[in-house]
Design brief:
This protein is an alpha/beta fold and 168 residues long. It is 30% helix and 21% strand. It has a 7-stranded parallel beta sheet with strand order 5-6-4-7-8-3-9, with helices on both faces. Strands 1-2 form a two-stranded antiparallel sheet. Strand 1 and strand 2 form a beta hairpin. The chain is globular, with a radius of gyration of 15 Å.
């Protein structure tokens, strides 16, 4: 599957492509594994990734995982809790971000380099998601996760976005 294909609205404006990844019974382990796989695919295509997590604790967990995903390599990244900020001069191909007050006002200072792939690991639709070419939504198999994902799916559909669903 190709990581990037642009959805163009009939007025010529680029729309965000949203992909839902429906995962198995052990969804938390599969979600983190899929995030790493998507990051690897994006990096192989020279694309940047912003991983949006729910909290600083989730960011720390994702940070640890990206360092240890494979025994013989790591995924280069930075995050909110390090000294490198999203708008600093140094560019990391993967950035871990969690909600801040700025996110709710839709003025998140996201550099253009990070607007290629957004991986949403929260239960909310990020207010800034339309700044991205592509967004990945991870969905677990339990009924609560499915219900939350269905609501997001309906919201994106009502906005006229191009949606894909992958059962894994």
């Amino acid at each position: 599957m190709s990581l990037i294909k642009l959805a163009i609205h009939n007025n010529g404006i680029q729309m965000t492509q949203v992909d839902f990844y429906i995962l198995g019974e052990n969804s938390q382990r599969q979600i983190t594994s899929m995030v790493c796989r998507l990051c690897e695919k994006a990096l192989a295509q020279e694309l940047s990734v912003l991983i949006y997590v729910a909290s600083p604790a989730d960011a720390q967990q994702m940070d640890d995982l990206l360092w240890t995903y494979k025994a013989n390599s790591f995924i280069a990244h930075s995050s909110h809790f390090t000294q490198t900020k999203l708008n600093s001069d140094y560019f990391y191909p993967v950035f871990i971000h969690y909600p801040t007050a700025a996110d709710k006002t839709d003025v998140v200072p996201i550099r253009d380099q990070y607007k290629q792939l957004l991986i949403n690991l929260t239960t909310e639709i990020p207010s800034f998601f339309q700044k991205f070419t592509r967004m990945a939504e991870m969905v677990g198999k339990n009924n609560e996760e499915k219900a939350i994902a269905r609501n997001r799916y309906r919201t994106y559909l009502q906005q006229g976005l191009s949606l894909n669903k992958y059962d894994l």
